[in-house]
Amino acid sequence: MVRSLLPLNALRAFEAAARHLNFSRAADELSVTPGAVSQQIRLLEDIVGGPLFVREARGLQLTDLGRSSVPLLREGFERLMDASALLREPPRRKQVSISVAPGFASKWLMPRMDDFHTAHPEIELWISADMEPADLTEGKVDLAVRYGPGDYPGLTVDRLMTETVLPVCAPSLMDGDKPIRKPGDLIGHTLLHDMSNDGDPSRPDWAMWLKARGIRHPDPRRGSRFNQSGLLIEAAISGRGVALAKRTLAQADLASGRLVAPFPDGSEAVGFAYYVVQPRDRPPSPSATAFVGWLKKQAVDHDNTMGQL
């Protein structure tokens, strides 16, 4: 059976009248006369073969036929408005907007950006580094990298990398006044704490890490605290103490020698991982697809490097 669209002006008049339950207010909204609204309603009623409104003592009311069609009609007009807004926008260049946590942006993504720009000079990346995850349903962000359990309803989810934590510090602390040779030596050093609100129940803190190694620290909760993982790592680089850091974020600084891992076998895996997420109801642009492909390759290279450390 061939499906055809009813007259758009008549549908528009009916939706406005159904929302206001008043022909005059609908006419004001549409910038026409009440008579024109009434004429469009009659046209629509003739086509569908039944009344859409009845007049009662309390005013205009929808019939069952009219009432059942209003929600779908309203949704349809909202989609038309969205499409109209999109068509009015100037042509976009090849852009990809990405939402990431500040620590991941500064310590993992940014050191790799030159590689992406070399491979894709035609694509502009708009990076938003916020503590709170962006709402991908609003259409302002193409994709996000999230650290979490991987359960993100309504989104397409691909795992990038797992995570571990381990102690890291500046090389100068290893052979300073209080050399670090074994976990017990940490008692003589300031402990740096990662207080980023990532909600990971499996990530150990210093008290848990030391207890697992049989170390009775007098106060493992003392020391400087940082609400961003990137700040924690920078504090360790500057020699302010020993940090229990996410290894993924510390990798570049470990590879460059700005950080060292006093106990390479002291890393502990955590339950959370990094995921790239995209809206399920909006197909990705070719530029977003290219970026995700590059991101996955970088993650594989990262894992291979981690296995060699």
Number of helices: 11
Strand order of the largest sheet: 4-3-5-10-6-9-7-8
The coarse overall form would be: elongated
- Give a quick account of the main beta sheet: strands, pairing sense, barrel closure: 8 strands, mixed
CATH class of the largest domain: Alpha Beta
| CATH-assigned fold name of the largest domain | D-Maltodextrin-Binding Protein, domain 2
If you average the pLDDT, what whole number results?
Answer: 89
Secondary-structure element order, N to C: HHHEEHEHHEEEHEHEHEHEH
Helix content: 40-55%
Point out poorly predicted stretches: none
Backbone CA Rg: 30 Å
Helix-and-strand structural type: alpha/beta
Assembly form of the protein: single chain
C-alpha end-to-end distance = 66 Å
Number of domains: 2
**How many strands?**
10
Second-tier CATH architecture of the largest domain:
3-Layer(aba) Sandwich
GO molecular function: DNA-binding transcription factor activity; sequence-specific DNA binding
InterPro entries: LysR-type_TF_proteobact-type, LysR_HTH_N, LysR_subst-bd, WH-like_DNA-bd_sf, WH_DNA-bd_sf
Organism: Brevundimonas intermedia
Protein name: Transcriptional regulator GcvA
What does this structure look like?
The protein has 309 residues and is an alpha/beta fold. The protein has 2 domains: 6-86, Arc Repressor Mutant, subunit A, CATH 1.10.10; 92-308, D-Maltodextrin-Binding Protein, domain 2, CATH 3.40.190.290. The chain is 42% helix and 20% strand. It is built from 11 helices and 10 strands. The chain has helices at residues 8-20, 23-30, 34-48, 64-88, 102-109, 113-119, 171-174, 206-212, 229-237, 247-256, 286-308, and strands at residues 53-56, 59-62, 95-100, 124-129, 143-148, 155-168, 191-194, 225-226, 242-246, 268-279. The chain has an 8-stranded mixed sheet. Strand 1 and strand 2 form a beta hairpin. The radius of gyration is 30 Å and the shape is elongated. It starts with 7 loop residues before the first helix and ends with a helix.
